[in-house]
Amino acid sequence: MKNIVNIAYSYHNSNKGITRIWTTLPMDHPDVTCTHSPEEKTIDDGNNELFYFTLKENEQFQMNYSIDTYKQNEQKMLTDKEKAFYLRSGTLVVVDEQMRNLAHEITAGAVTTMEKAKAIFNYTVTQYKYVYPPKGRGTKSFLQAKQGDCGEYSFLFSSLCRSIGIPCRTLIGSWANGKMGAHVWNELYDEQAGWVPVDCSLASLQKKKKFQFLFSNIRTLKWTAYFGQLEGQRVVFSYDAELYLSPKYNDLDKLTIVNSPYPPIAPFQIDGEPFYWGYEAVDGCAPYLQPVYMQFDQENLSLKPNKNEHNYLGKWKITETGAQGVFLKLKNWSYAAFFVFFTLSLLLSSPLVSALAAGSIIVTCISYIARKERILLFTFVTLYFLLFFMSNVIKLV
């Protein structure tokens, strides 16, 4: 069953000079509306399509497209290139002796690929703490700090799986509703099941902070279910981190950056060193494409750095369609109506106003249920307010 969403992405070059941009957005697909054509396209060994283009000062890039939400890929065979790509070691996802020893310790007694991966999942979920934003990015930072966000959970899971020969990739994407809902999760490869979805960070939050998403527009699962299944409310921008950038990324020398009149923002550290987003790459790769990575003109180092997140990621908005979209709007409208009528009920002793407040929250709860968000909880709340609604209707009769 398809769950189509509409994605609107834009980037405004508010910087000085030319900004070079790489993206995994589907710029050359026939059903896409886009202000620019890619100047170059490359396909890497993991089958990621990377597009390259440039923006002049104050130039605006806009793109609109529709896509089905993420679903499990049941691909049963990998080419040698694909397998090597998703077993490789990098700067953020490290495969070395330390990781191999840790992975073997975690999976002791496990036999099958799925048993080993499940052991790694349980370890990652239980032994680390979700904290945003992290001070450092990558496996080694996460191991040391014992805390990080969805990216760090995903990097560690990939590292541990790859260390014992299980192809694994980090999925860079977004929640499938609202603005700028960035998220990262994993897929591991099993010959019988294909690519199996795993979300360690959501599992950790559901295990340790059960009410984190209580009133959100995101469905939630029991924490153990995040190994092997997801809720169907996300889209993928790129498959894996550390994707090689072509044309070649021309890193600026660290000393040039640090000694500039206005050193740029370093949003995090990699291997204990500040990483300057937009001025350097990770061994020729973007740390991740969500859904873009860029290189600013060196001229910008003579200006105060732009602290707006849109300067580094652009903007995106994802709108659900069909029944999901209808019930989301209904939920928002009825929730707003509830607050209006509830406030009036505090000022007026009116059964009619109280009935309207109860009716509004009943519609809100039904919308949650229709969207499969905390069904048991909102069924109970619906029944409670239904009794309250009926008691006020009886007063009116």
TrEMBL record:
Keywords: Membrane, Transmembrane, Transmembrane helix. InterPro entries: Papain-like_cys_pep_sf (IPR038765), Transglutaminase-like (IPR002931). It comes from the Bacteria. SMART domains: TGc. It comes from Solibacillus merdavium. This is Transglutaminase domain-containing protein. The chain crosses the membrane at residues 333-363, 375-394. The keyword Transmembrane applies. Pfam families: Transglut_core.
